[in-house]
Amino acid sequence: MIRAFFGIGLEGRDRTRITDWRDQACACEGKPVPPANLHITLAFIGDIKRTALEQIADAAESYFAKNAIGGGTLVLDTVGYWSKPGIFWIGPSQWPQPLTRLSQKLRHLSCAAGGKGNNRPFQPHVTLHRRCRNPPTAPLYEPNVRLSYTHCTLFESHQGKKGVSYHALEQWPLQPQ
Fold first, then answer.
1. 83-97: per-residue pLDDT in tens?
2. Where is this motif: HXTX 2 (predicted)?
3. Which stretches does DSSP call E strand in the chain?
4. Residue tagged active-site, from 108, 125, 129, 158
5. With a threshold of 0.90, does the pTM exceed it?
6. Is 129 a known active-site residue?
7. CATH superfamily placement of domain 2-173
8. Which three-class secondary structure state does DSSP give residue 160?
């Protein structure tokens, strides 16, 4: 079994801006996400057999080949906390509608091949801390991180001795806007 998801990988300078803001402006009792693991999830697939994941990747390849999906820019200007999973995050208060449609399509492709589905509305976000038992205090100052997204990536989540790491399995370019 492979644990996988579709997401937007972040460039090094974007990861640095996010972690600098997190480290300077936020106090949270949770476990900080390592900079290398920062990303925006588009569709969580979950644990799946390799053959089913190959089927999902093939379906995504076909979809991207037939459709001009645009990249874009996001402004991470808000924070949130989800109590059940204990996640503190940063995200955009507004985002392009095509990003929501892409998330929905990738969720559909994943579910059709046996991936985990969910009915939660799409909220693009970057997880800053995990395992937060209590809501974090308000940040010292509001976030304002602008980042561009130019690729959609199929990631594998690998649990190792030093924790979780994410590895790109496939990547599809998004059209410049």
1. 999 999 999 999 999
2. 125-128
3. 2-9, 31-32, 39-48, 72-82, 87-92, 126-130, 145-149, 151-160, 163-173
4. 125
5. yes
6. no
7. Cyclic phosphodiesterase (3.90.1140.10)
8. strand
